[in-house]
Amino acid sequence: MTTATISAVQTGHVGLNVTDLDRAVPFYARVFGFQVQAEGGNDERRWAFLGHDGRLVLTLWQQSETPFPASSAGLHHLSFQVGSIDEVRAAEAVLRELGAEFRYDGVVPHGEGMSSGGIFFTDPDGIRLEIYAPSGAETAAAPSGEAPTCGFF
Question: InterPro entries from the xrefs (predicted)?
Answer without folding.
Answer: Fosfomycin_Res_Enzymes, Glyas_Bleomycin-R_OHBP_Dase, Glyas_Fos-R_dOase_dom, Glyoxalase_1_CS, VOC_core
